[in-house]
Amino acid sequence: MKDFKDNTRERSDKEVIRRLLSYAKPYKKEFVWIIIMMIISLGIQLLPPLLIGLTVDTVADQTLSSAEKIQFIVYLSIFFVVILAIANFVSYLQGIMLQKVGQKTVVSLRDEVFNHIEHLSIGQINQVPVGKLVTRVVNDTNTISEMYTNVLVNLVRNVIYLFAIVIVIFIINWKISIFVMLTVPLVFLATYVFRKFSRASYRRVRQGVSEVNAFLSENLSGMKVTQIFNQEDKKRNEFKGYSLKLRNSYLQEILVFGIYRPIVYLISMAGALLVLYVGYQEVLAGIITAGILYSYYAYVGDFFEPIQQLAEQFNTLQNAFASAEKVFDVLDTKPDIKDEEDAIELPTFSGQIEFKDVWFSYIQDEWVLKGISFKVEPGDTVAFVGATGSGKTTILSLIVRNYEIQKGQILIDGIDIKKIKRSSLRRHIGQMLQDVFLFSGTILENITLRDDVIKEEDVIHASEYVGANTFIDQLPDRYNHVVLERGNNFSAGQRQLISFARALVYKPSLMILDEATANIDSETEALIQESLEKMMNISTMLIVAHRLSTIQHADKIIVMQKGEIKEEGNHQALLKLGGLYYNLYQLQYEEKETSPA
Questions:
Q1: Burial class of 579 by CB neighbour count within 10 A (0 to 12, 13 to 18, 19+)
Q2: What is the tally of helices (H) and strands (E) in the chain?
């Protein structure tokens, strides 16, 4: 798997720009209109210095009467107000269209990133802190949004404006313009040096933001543990370390830009002084008028203004590029598990499962499963027992293709699961896990997962079937009761019953229970045990159980140790065998006998 946790691959500006522009391609017509409106606005923006210079020369013209001068100024003022109103209206339309296009573009990018993350394997997602993924989807895409809605078009605008001013000043006086152009290479040199240091500083900032978000996401979720063990001071110091690191990255970024901007300003002042010096000589020689000198000086000021704006836009552009690199690292991460080209849809399956010499490891050559082979017939209930780390939960994860096996074969109804589309495979499998996750919303929405196809009557029936109605019916708004974040307003047992109803309402052909009764009270366990006995007659069921009392009626019990199957058989047969299962049963029986009342 390509690792995008910490090491961002450095990319060329050309590659980043090409990929960013690909998201704007569907809106190229809108961008054409934006450019047209920009040119109109820029053309009008070039007129004021010329009009003011013309006014200065008119006022200084001794051949005109005062009345003629006033009349000229009035007409010129009216003309100036009209074109200014037109320019503002065009700029308004351009801004509205640009914001709409920019936001649509970023929505497309954000959707693509989230959709891509959804298709990564569980193993890949587990390797990256949640906070970092949130940063990619939210913070980094927002930074890219600033590029689309502000920087990109203004960058084009300023480049066009620069070329337009160069043409105008050369038309006015080519001799002075040559002196002005002598300062341009200095600006490019400063920009080249700035670009090298700024990208590195922005990468450090984006990395720091990711680390802070990841730390917050993890520690806010685990605040209960922090408080129980009085670790507040330690966590505060850890957060302070991340925060100071981010602050230092920001200060380095500010330092780089703080050096670049004054250098460009000094170069612009040098250009302005050259204009005044050479232009003054031209005026004394009678080559140009004072009005033309003013117009020229104003244009030169306008020439360096977009250069300074380009510096600021370049600043934001580098920030966007740094964010884009991290977003592209996510998008370029290939899913570990993909459907094969000839993968099929299964309308349903009977529930026959077979493992043939299956080997699996999370880390290369550290085998978790070693040559596992067993067969489950349709409608059977099979339980897996064994010590922690023996591979029980891994078997269940492999059936739903959360991970990919390295050797062997897993069959469902005689079909290799690699030949079945994952969506089709998982559609017919209901899972009830030890750690239940409930989403914000209502109980009804948590059971249906907001699937409008599932009717409320089906939800009520499933809840009654598993016994969840015993507490849901006591709530004032029953199935419309609001679930707090992670279901914190329900007990572990209640959350488990809701998850059981969630699995059942989809009418699975195979039910998987992974330590479903590990963290619940005896009363809730009795409800689930009753539901399990009902489910045994409906579909194939695979159970990983810590409490052996919940699996005594299973058709087959598979005893595992260190990734291998050691014993198979039903409850009575394994007790008679007197092996590992017998020892586990005796141990739990003794614990139950000696536990305090």
A1: middle
A2: 22, 12
pLDDT digits (tens, 9 = 90+) for 21-70: 888 888 888 888 888 888 888 888 888 888 887 887 777 777 778 888 88
* Six-digit token string for 195: 């670009």
**Are 327 and 421 within one domain?**
no
* Whole-angstrom distance, CA of residue 128 vs CA of residue 132: 7
User: pTM to 2 decimals?
Assistant: 0.70
pLDDT over 70 (residue 527): no
Estimate the crossing angle of helix 456-466 against helix 492-505, to 10 degrees: 130
CA dist 77 and 492 (Å) reads 77
Distance CA 226, CA 235 (A): 8
H-only helix segments in 46-173: 47-60, 66-118, 122-126, 130-134, 141-146, 152-172
CA distances from 311 to 26, 140, 263, 542 (A): 29, 21, 11, 63
What's the pLDDT tens digit per position in 454-480? 888 888 888 888 788 888 888 888 888
| Helix extents (H) in 147-231 | 152-172, 174-181, 184-221, 223-228
Does 347 map to a domain?
A: no
Residue 536 belongs to some domain of the structure: yes
The residue segments making up the domain with residue 114 are: 13-331
475, 499, 523: which is the final residue of a domain? Answer: 499
Q: What is the residue whose two structure tokens read 């391609």?
A: 25
**Total residue count of the chain as it appears in this document:** 597
